[in-house]
Amino acid sequence: MSLLNVEQLSVRYGATEVLRDVSLSVETGEIVTIVGPNGSGKTTLLRAIVGAAPATAGRIMPAPGLRLGYVPQRLHVDPTLPITVRRFLSLPGGATRSDKAAALARAGAPELAKRQMSQLSGGQLQRVLLARALVARPQLLLLDEPTAGLDQPGSAAFYQLIDDVRRETGCAVLMISHELHVVMAASDRVICLNGHVCCHGTPEHVSSAPEYQALFGTGTGGALALYRHDHDHTHDLDDACGADHRHNDQTKAAE
Ligand SMILES: Nc1ncnc2c1ncn2[C@@H]1O[C@H](COP(=O)(O)OP(=O)(O)OP(=O)(O)O)[C@@H](O)[C@H]1O
User: Fold this and answer.
1) Which of the listed residues 11, 35, 42, 175 should we mutate to test ligand 1's pocket, taking the one with most ligand atoms within 8 A of CB?
2) What does the pLDDT look like over 147-161, one tens digit per residue?
3) pLDDT tens, 185-209?
4) Which atom of ligand 1 lies closest to the CA of 19?
5) How many alpha carbons fall within 13 Å on the CB side of residue 63?
6) ipTM score for this prediction
7) Which residues have CB under 6 Å of ligand 1?
8) Which CATH architecture has domain 4-67+138-246?
9) Do you know which PANTHER family this protein is assigned to (predicted)?
10) Domain parsing of the chain, residue ranges
């Protein structure tokens, strides 16, 4: 059974239909990346999945009891509000000190627990936001441009971290990214969105699709050849997801 099914979702803000007839699924343990131009509805799609944007039509069907972790695109921390990282990680409530420490360690930032939120660098803040999402041991991580504002090494390190988290916990990842060469290297499947699903499938398939090339050109073909790594392997998943899978099963319908 899929972790998440979205069926024929439409979202409208006033008179403007931002998403039309969007369908997708996410399977256990896979990394699915959403690409699309500015204003194409990517953030709105993630917000609809977490219940923060209202669906005007269609259905969002998470697996029963699905634990979601959401890393928003940005978080403004009021510098006049003193709050430590550890306290920030407590905000959802119910997390033990060891849960928080484990999440920070998994997000590669164990040393940040006592730091003030307002004093973190962009890369540190992204790791803390990831840690916050990991506290609930999610089966599905939703990431909205997690490397926006990071330099290239910081961005590469963050994507490596996401892959490590996926390997260690078995969680699936549904993320938005503008970094096409990274997307093509790190994703099992890609969904190209422009208000509707233009095309979807393996990175190889999407990068050669005319709909994708009309939006992004053909430049990622070479990057794909350089960066794409072999996903033909099996991961042992922990109880968070409860099953093994193979990454070479990459062709779930998304439309
Ligand atoms: N709360 C809102 N009220 C009205 N319009 C909105 C709201 N949120 C988003 N929109 C509009 O919906 C459209 C899609 O926005 P969205 O943020 O989902 O796009 P995006 O693909 O994530 O863009 P970007 O790549 O620039 O982050 C835009 O035209 C935006 O102005």
Assistant:
1) 42
2) 888 888 888 888 888
3) 889 999 999 999 999 999 999 988 9
4) 14
5) 18
6) 0.97
7) 13, 18, 36, 38-44
8) 3-Layer(aba) Sandwich (3.40)
9) METAL TRANSPORT SYSTEM ATP-BINDING PROTEIN TM_0124-RELATED, ZINC IMPORT ATP-BINDING PROTEIN ZNUC
10) 4-67+138-246, 75-136
